[in-house]
Design goal:
Blueprint: E1 9-15, E2 27-38, E3 41-53, E4 58-65, H1 68-71, E5 80-85, E6 87-97
Antiparallel strand pairs: 1-4, 1-6, 2-3, 2-5, 3-4, 5-6
């Protein structure tokens, strides 16, 4: 898990349905290390959630970024991303940030926000 105590953001995660509806894609709650993709950039993260989830199901998860000082500006509220484990396994959307962005006043592309 990341070195900070609180998650960087909360996301709605949707596991992609499998081609044949098998159960290989189910996930049990806990902490999972994964890679998040946004705009063809990849970020290491740990995702934590409760319960058992099957392909096609959506659930809420807490997300810790490995390098939040670099990655967090990319993950604004409402931003969509993919979760990878060999291939795209799930889609996510940032529901709310839980940590302040280190680069306040800068959007996810590095542009200054109007203040």
């Amino acid at each position: 898990m990341a070195t900070h105590a609180s998650p960087d953001f909360v996301a709605e995660i949707c596991l992609l349905p499998t081609a044949f509806g098998d159960c290989r894609g189910h996930l049990s709650g806990g902490a999972w290390r994964t890679v998040l993709e946004i705009d063809h950039e990849f970020w290491s993260a740990t995702v934590h959630f409760d319960g058992e989830h099957v392909p096609g199901e959506s659930f809420e998860a807490e997300v810790w970024l490995l390098l939040p000082e670099v990655a967090l500006p990319m993950f604004e509220q409402g931003v969509r991303f993919a979760l990878w484990e060999d291939e795209s396994e799930a889609l996510g959307i940032v529901k709310r940030l839980t940590r302040a962005c280190v680069r306040e006043g800068v959007d996810r592309r590095g542009n200054r926000r109007n203040q």
